[in-house]
Design goal:
single chain; mainly alpha
Length: 63
């Protein structure tokens, strides 16, 4: 089950404040198990973003 807060892209600090955790680190510790399945998706997304950035930089005309 995914946290509705993190699914809505809330930051750890926002989750901490909304749920009354002592720190953002505590909020991440409590919900860390929610992120394990997403590691491959994050890696794929980073590769995609990096590829676009490299392609854009290669085609950019330098003045």
């Amino acid at each position: 089950m995914k946290s509705p807060y993190f699914s809505a892209c809330a930051t750890p600090k926002a989750v901490q404040r909304m749920l009354g955790h002592a720190s953002a680190a505590m909020a991440l510790h409590v919900y860390a198990n929610l992120f394990e399945d997403g590691l491959d998706a994050v890696s794929d997304r980073l590769v995609e973003v990096r590829s676009r950035t490299v392609a854009r930089d290669l085609w950019r005309v330098k003045a």
